[in-house]
Amino acid sequence: PPAWDRAARPPPSPLQPPGLPLAPCRSFSNNKIQVDLDESSGVATMKFKSPPVNSLSLEFLTEFSISLEKLENDRACRGVIITSALPKIFSSGLDITEMCGKSMEHYAEFWRAVQEMWLRIYGSNMVTVAAVNGSSPAGGCLIALSCDYRIMAENPKFSIGLNEAQLGIVAPFWFKETFVNVVGHRTAESSLQLGSLHSAPEAHRLGLVDELVPEEKLMEKAAAVMAQWLALPDHARQLTKTMMRKAVVDRLVTHREEDIKNFVTFISKESIQKSLRTYMEMLKKKKR
């Protein structure tokens, strides 16, 4: 992983007493993700920066997991706010090109990276707050669901949901369990079967996101929520989180190879490849 770089410190503000050092902000960036850690608050901000839509490619997933691991191992970091550097999109979800027309070995490597991303964020000891500043279908929704708290920009044009069924794909059990644990069984069941994408107001009504705020207040609200969560002793919060999430995490860890095998078998089927090709053609037509 890339080394931490000390960001250039801004000049002291007029309100700052002379000679008092500013708390350092440490930053690191790779191709797809920018991370800034404010040492005074212990809060990192992770921004997705993979145009045009922050799709979860193998490279993106790898960088995401490395960035999370780096923050997890940094004693100065207690929480991370996850958001997008791109306007109108949080993340479009799994990169379909990684699942179409590739080798079985590639599918296995890709799915292992998807698993790793979820295990790192869902099982994180840090406080994780999703600041959803745009649409967030499928894998993008999974990232938000895996956080401790979700705040979404109050824009009816933005949508969020696990819409895999629309692509002819079945969400695996750990996607499903994460969803059920947030919105309840009935809402998750109907939403997954229909591959529903919910508008921001509907997502809030269903409990898929915890709060809606105006776009310009999103990061301010995320920081306030983070401060509220960090006011508690870390060990009590971490042990409670582990207790609540352990069963699902353990189930994937135990059945990880079987889950990869199931994915590879499923995604390699010609009928599924045909569905994905059709969907990609549809996306191309939309862009024209």
From TrEMBL:
Catalytic activities: (3Z)-dodecenoyl-CoA = (2E)-dodecenoyl-CoA; a (3E)-enoyl-CoA = a 4-saturated (2E)-enoyl-CoA; (3Z)-hexenoyl-CoA = (2E)-hexenoyl-CoA; (3Z)-octenoyl-CoA = (2E)-octenoyl-CoA
Alphabetized UniProt keyword annotations: Acetylation, Fatty acid metabolism, Isomerase, Lipid metabolism, Mitochondrion, Transit peptide
Pathway it works in: Lipid metabolism; fatty acid beta-oxidation
Gene Ontology biological process terms from the UniProt entry: fatty acid beta-oxidation
Disordered: annotated span: 1-20
GO cellular component: mitochondrial matrix
Enzyme Commission identifier(s): 5.3.3.8
InterPro entries in alphabetical order: ClpP/crotonase-like_dom_sf, Enoyl-CoA_hyd/isom_CS, Enoyl-CoA_hydra/iso
An annotated Gene Ontology molecular function: delta(3)-delta(2)-enoyl-CoA isomerase activity
Localization terms from the record: Mitochondrion matrix
Pfam families: ECH_1
Enzyme kind, highest EC tier: isomerase
Assembly description: Homotrimer.
Similarity comment text for this entry: Belongs to the enoyl-CoA hydratase/isomerase family.
PANTHER family reported in the protein's UniProt record: ENOYL-COA DELTA ISOMERASE 1, MITOCHONDRIAL (PTHR11941:SF45), ENOYL-COA HYDRATASE-RELATED (PTHR11941)
Function, as annotated: Key enzyme of fatty acid beta-oxidation. Able to isomerize both 3-cis (3Z) and 3-trans (3E) double bonds into the 2-trans (2E) form in a range of enoyl-CoA species, with a preference for (3Z)-enoyl-CoAs over (3E)-enoyl-CoAs. The catalytic efficiency of this enzyme is not affected by the fatty acyl chain length.
UniProt name for this protein: Enoyl-CoA delta isomerase 1, mitochondrial
Organism this protein belongs to: Erpornis zantholeuca
